[in-house]
Amino acid sequence: MTPNVDELFQKFSFEDIWTLLLKLYFNIPKNEYKKLCCIIYRIAYMLDFKILNETQVRFRPDNDILKVIHQIQTKINSSNIDIDIYAFLHFIDILCWNEDVKYQSYCEFIKIRTGRINTALSIISIPLIFANFIEKLTEDIKNGNEPDYSSLIKVAQNFARTRGIQPISNVQLVEFLSPYLTN
Asked: How far is CA 122 from CA 18, 77, 92, 128, in A?
């Protein structure tokens, strides 16, 4: 199963997702980036979904969230990055469904974080960890200090231990995405 949205995001890997998000991190205002991550967080927990009937649940953000998506898209467009952010969010949703099917094939959802939630939180987490590392590395070099590589080493260790997922803790997410994500 290879998720995609129309001609967009065909064969789009996690590497592609994280590269795009890092590019956005460094090219749009931080508040807009935080809002985007919060929307992805909301996708993880299906907060902006509508039950259409007994067998269909779809990502259908309300007007307030759509307005935020439009504001983010405006900032992306002004930075000359060619991405339809609404389609990208749908792609993330499809990817999350794909992961749920892999881990929850009987729809029992015994391990609730397996699948959708860990996937969406990993999508958010890796770019935030790397961006934080890059900013600290730049500051260390500027100040003549020895760079601290521990955050990247921890990511590598966690990937090895958790078989490819890397959701950071809710405490860290709240710290990174404040004031848009709170306890």
From this structure: 9, 25, 11, 10
SS3 category, 8:
strand
pTM over 0.90? The answer is no
Q: If you ran DSSP here, which 8-state letter would residue 5 be given?
A: B
CB 38 within 8 A of CB 68: no
DSSP string, 39-87: HHHHHHTTTTEEEEETTEEEE---HHHHHHHHHHHHHHHHTT----HHH
Task: Tell me which of 28-42, 44-58, 93-107, 166-180 is least confident.
Answer: 93-107
Give the residue-averaged pLDDT of 93-107. 70
Tell me if 123 sits within 8 A of 17, measured CB to CB.
yes
Q: Per-residue b/e over 86-96, b at no fewer than 16 CB within 10 Å?
A: bebbbbbbbbb
